[in-house]
Amino acid sequence: MTEFEQHDAQWNDLLQDQIDGELVASDRVALDSHVAGCPRCRAQLSKLKRLDHLLHAKLEPPPLSSTFDQQVFARIHAMNEQAQERTRRRMERELQDNLQALSRTWRRSLLSVIGGAIAGVALALAFLNWASEASLAKSLVTAATNSVGQGYGNVIQVLITMIVGAAIGAGVSRLMSATVD
Amino acid sequence: MSQLAITQPVGLASDAYIQQHLQSGNFRDAFALLLPHYRDKVFRLCFGMLQQRAWAEDVSQDVFLRIWRALPGFAGQSSLSTWIYAISRNACLSELRKKRPQISIDDDDEDGYHPEIAALSVADADDTATVTVNQMLEQLPERYRQAVTLFYMEDKSYEQTAASLGMPLGTVKALLHRARKRLVELAKEVA
Fold it and tell me: Is the Cβ–Cβ distance between B85 and B37 less than 8 Å?
């Protein structure tokens, strides 16, 4: 560091503090005394003062638009409307998705139920036809009428058809539902 | 939003009063109080960092939109002013990164011959002085320029400059001293 650099490092901050009115009393006395006998510091102080005046005069904050607040509020309003619009669209989309999902579920269920019912009845009739040929149905009806009472033979035969048909239909419906999924 | 526009206050509210509204969840009124209180300070900070009036005004509007969105999340971890200045600085830095990526904030060694700085040797400012001052400031490293611009726009208040820039007061002072020293040196080279 040269002699001048050492000198400037020692006094420059104090000179700038003086420009800004930040100099404490003890430093002011020391600085005034030094500046009085130091042409370099006098010249620097003069330049700093001129710079300070120039910056102070020319760095006035520029005027803010008189409609600044209105513009901010308008943008917030637009932003809120956009947010509301986004929310509305999202809710509509979710509703459509739900309706489509519900529709898919209903179609699937209806298909399964109808298919299951038809298949169940067909298979139940086929089963009873086979059971009749094998005298199995007659044995079942006879056993049932013996325990329930005579005169209920036809009713018991229909009940057996329904139970067997429902069991087979439920099995077929489940199978069809799993196949559709 | 119509309610927000209606409730704009006439005078300036204190931070404490604004925070009372925030704590009670009354964000609309809090914002309506906050905007006139911080509008100019945010704009000066943005202008100090961006150096262009129209750009600074646009970004200031963005800042208040960010504040509006973030108000419900403001839990008072820092003071309201610190929070607002931080949002403002981040918005400006984001803009600077987007539009002026070539600027390096740590570039302190950009000395050179700049004829426009000769105007500094002229005692009386003429009509071109504003342009000249701006051109002069452009020769300074970014941090110096921000500190010196904001310091003079804030009527030479170290405290407000430090608060706006989010820096310790001593750092602002050091930046300002170096900036003015650099300007004087540049002028001396030209003279």
Answer: no
